[in-house]
Design goal:
Order of helices and strands: EEEEEHEHEHE
CATH superfamily: MTH938-like
Helix content: 10-25%
Protein name: Xcc1710-like domain-containing protein
Pfam family, one: DUF498
Oligomer: single chain
CATH class: Alpha Beta
Mean pLDDT: 93
InterPro entries: MTH938-like_sf, NDUFAF3/AAMDC
CATH topology: Hypothetical Protein Mth938, Chain: A
Length: about 120
């Protein structure tokens, strides 16, 4: 029995591994922001220590329903103050390791949700 949709209208994460993801078959090792509405850009951080409040404020401008934050190889949470711009706009944030975030993004995007994946990819 087939459970996947025949057609995926949003950008999809087609593969991932330690320190890289492939979006629609295009592999990258740079931290990436990916939206189910078609936006994709490098997230200017190469480690969790590089992240700042500005990285999360930038995500608010995309106005998604929910942001899936992939925090790298292990689960790490952003300080609550950094998430304040998102909370003010009533944007949900789910934090998980990057590989789990890839899977979750695909599920939500496949359901037609306006989701943004902010994926931290560390070397």
């Amino acid at each position: 029995m087939k459970f996947q949709p025949d057609r995926f209208d949003a950008q999809a994460i087609t593969a991932y591994g330690p320190g890289w993801v492939a979006v629609d078959g295009e592999k990258t090792s740079a931290s990436t922001v990916l939206s189910s509405r078609g936006q994709r850009f490098d997230w200017q951080c190469s480690s969790f220590a590089d992240l700042t409040a500005a990285h999360f404020a930038q995500l608010a401008d995309l106005q998604p329903e929910v942001i899936v934050f992939g925090s790298g190889a292990r689960l790490r949470f952003a300080p609550p103050a950094w998430l304040a711009p998102l909370m003010r706009r009533r944007i949900g944030v789910e934090t998980m390791d990057t590989q789990a975030a890839c899977r979750t993004y695909n599920i939500l995007a496949g359901e037609g949700r306006h989701v943004v994946a902010a994926l931290l990819l560390e070397a």
